[in-house]
Amino acid sequence: MNALNNDIKYLKGVGEFRSKLLSKLNIFTIGDLLEHFPRDYINRRSAVKIRDLKFAENCSFVGNIVSVEKIQRPHKKSQLNVVVTDGEDYLFLTWFRFGNWFIDQFKNGKQIWVSGIVSEFRGTPQILHPQTEILDEEDMKLDFWKTRSVLPVYPLTEKISMNVMRNLIYKAFELYADEIEENLPPYIAEKFNFPDRKTALQKIHFTQHPYSIPQEKIRFAFEELFFTQLMLARSKYGHEKKQNGNKFTLEKTFTTKLKNSLPFELTNAQKRVIREFVEDMTSSKQMNRLLQGDVGSGKTIVTIFAMLLAIENGFQSILMAPTEILAEQHFNSISKLLSNQPKIRIALLKGGVSKAKTELKQKIKNGEVDIIIGTHALIQKDVEFNNAGFVAIDEQHRFGVEQRAVLSHRNSNPDLMYLSATPIPRSLALTVYGDLDVSIIDELPPNRKEIKTTYYNFNKSSVVYEKVETQLKIGRQVYVVCPLIKESEKIDLLDAETLFERLSTHVFPNRKIALLHGKMKTKDKDSIMEKFKNGEFDILVSTTVIEVGIDVPNATVMIVEHAERFGLSQLHQLRGRVGRGSDRSYCYLIVHPPISEEGRERLNIMIETNDGFKIAEKDLEIRGPGDFFGTQQSGIPIFKHANIIRDRELLKTARILAFDIIDEDHELDLTKNEILNKVYFSKYAKREKLFDF
User: Fold this and answer.
1) CB of 444 closer than 8 Å to CB of 480
2) What gap in Å lies between CA 436 and CA 415, rounded to an integer?
3) Strand order across the 586-591 sheet
4) Which of 97, 360, 442, 540 has the highest Cβ tally under 10 A?
């Protein structure tokens, strides 16, 4: 076993206590520590002058402290001012949040490294809440670091200082540098002019020329993307070459009858997607397809066509939704669309225990039900399907990877369709769903009008309420969304309960208003939503529980309080709750200052476009892939070095190479792939299940 796989606690200077702290940085082994890269470098001999620092840009500077002052104002926050100099000019460093231990590190005459965005204060450059490090050689226990002109700056966690981190990494290299093995075969390293792995790691950590190492860092970003794409390529190969599907015949009985009975014309995008899945389902391979479409683009009707194609061939079709309310909506809409085809038997399977549910399970097992719609109840062990030929998973990112896998591996190798109303940017789709074929409905039905979106400061709420009253007077309904359920002492945000009281008592006292939030019992939530849909309430005050909910065509107004606190994709999903009918709809985003530049950027994008794919791309850029779905169970790989936004082109290159290799050598048995075989099957193969659904 390679020593780099040893638990980090066995490295001298770590132990049990520090190993727990390091785990917060995803450092569990010696190898993880060696790949904990600097986020910046300090040049202790920097010649950068204060007069050359540029306003509104992130700058780094090394100088000397000449003044430390704590200002305590009555009834206001304390303020810490530290003045540094380069011998000619002065730079103010200011903090409003700090402890005494923080103040104690600043001493007149000490050398300090500063990094942050430069602003102007009374004609003098200033940095608010900068990153700093005191460059005191007495604190550097290793002589090695005292002699270095350039010092690495590492991401840290509580109780792990910069000097401790530097010393641990130095110790790891001192003891284990000879254990560093190559991950890429020569033909790949030479193709991209990558340095060997050991040299690359040493240069990244100990360089004295930090701006001359891009190729070393690119190498590690490439490794992460490349091995992820190998996993996806193997998964796709398995579906297409090894996993035999059901070769259906387009009988045109149920499918044609549905097409002829539709009260509307399918869009060109819907027709194109139907052709794509028909081609898959009538082939001998198992379909493995992601169906993307914006809110209201018509994914459900496309899914029904796929269901009917399976049923025409004597198979059952399954649709799994993340919530009971969404499952019921699908059941009702599909039952309505197929009401003229009584031979097709449709059932709704929900949670709970009852005699009726037991009887329904038996019917499903006996093949007496053709379409089964449900929640996670569908994947319970006692649910057996007679002959599952098609499986659709709606809002699939809301399910865990293992949950999705259960249905996809049911008997008969069913054709698989994953539905997403959250448009997924191409770079993220290639990383998470790169083994799937992708269909996109990029066209809205002609009767759907664009939702007019504007944002207001909270002190202009009365203007919004006047506009709302206009809609209420003509019989329309309104959603109001808050980020919190109850008032919180820790977070100063408007909550749903407080707003419900205010609207009911002072703003709309003559209107019927309901309150809905996630802590209510499921039956209570469903009851309120059903009553709102039936027009028994004029206004629904809610938390984001309605982000995915039933269609209420009569609801034409969406108000989002504290809109600056929401991500772009979530705002777009909330906005998609209105505009479900043919009437003009409105979305009012209420902001509560202070609002960051990023928050203002999000609001402006919402105003500029209703295109979910443009919004998703921008949201990915702003928030990054880890937060895009708002869940860590969606199978998104966590990259240390790669950034799928910055490294789009590198991702494409890695993908092409990985798929070419697997197409030629699926098991990586060729001599030239000996290194890939060793690395892949020891480190990555165990993660294949994340993509095998």
Assistant:
1) no
2) 12
3) 452-457, 586-591, 555-561, 477-481, 539-542, 513-516
4) 540
What's the one-letter identity of residue 497?
A: E
Which structural domains are found in the chain, ordered by start?
45-134 (2.40.50.140), 254-441 (3.40.50.300), 452-609 (3.40.50.300)
Q: Which residue has the tokens 């059901």?
A: 246
User: Is pLDDT above 70 for 410?
Assistant: no
Alpha helix stretches (DSSP H) within 345-395? 355-366
Residue ranges of E strands in 409-561 = 415-420, 437-441, 452-457, 477-481, 513-516, 539-542, 555-561
Q: Dump pLDDT digits (tens) for 13-66.
A: 999 999 999 999 999 999 999 999 999 899 888 878 999 998 888 888 899 999
pLDDT over threshold 60, residue 693: no
Structure tokens belonging to residue 608: 């500029």
Distance CA 387, CA 414 (A): 9
Helix (H) or strand (E) holding 7: none
Contact assessment for residue 204 and residue 169, using Cβ atoms and an 8 Å cutoff: no
Enter the DSSP assignment of 495: B
- DSSP for residue 193: T
Interval 280-295: pLDDT, tens: 999 988 888 989 888 7
Longest dimension (CA), the chain: 89
- Check: CB of residue 330 under 8 Å from CB of residue 373: yes
Q: How far apart are CA 522 and CA 513, in angstroms?
A: 19
User: Which residues are bridge partners to 391 per DSSP?
Assistant: 318, 416
Instruction: Round to whole Å and give the CA distance between 319 and 186.
Output: 47
With tokens 């540094």, the residue in question is: 84
Cα(426)–Cα(512) distance, integer angstroms:
44
Amino acid at 556: T
Q: How far apart are CA 132 and CA 102, in angstroms?
A: 11
pLDDT tens digits along 370-390: 999 998 888 888 888 999 999
Q: Sorting pLDDT into bands at 50, 70 and 90, what band is 631?
A: very low
Give the whole-angstrom CA distance, residue 281 versus residue 266. 20
